Write the structure tokens for this entry.
Amino acid sequence: MEDLQYKPRLKMKRNILLVTLMLGTMVACKKENTTNTISTPSETAAEKAKKVLMSGNWVMESNAMAIGNGPLIPIPIEDCEKDDYLKFTSTKQIMYFGTEKCELDEPSIDSMSYSFNSKADSITFSDPENTSTFGFSNPSANQIVFNASSENFKQKIVLKRK
């Protein structure tokens, strides 16, 4: 019985970027940031986005969701998740690390895969149970904003540099 209570909790933590629904339509966020970006003049948007994501460790700054056209409602980050951080690897894996446990048997390290579309203005996160696509644009060296939406749902996730 205890194991059945643990699995949904672990699943939610492990899929922090996938939250609840599979999303089919994505929207790119228009965020201009001309300072503190990681790029060179000859880099394509795809190269820049990949370089920014893989350039360090990231923590969840905020996560918000809305039903339909309603307002985005913040989803609180639990105390046991506040030390969690993500590392985007060159092997297209997102590694999750965290020492504070929400459950006793929770792993300290977990992962999921990611891939970019050909323009690198959206990213798809996948694990064996879920796949979600988020749009983004102009990621800065210190912050990345992911946006996703469908007819009935929208979500905004903000990662900041650890």
In short: The mean pLDDT is 77.
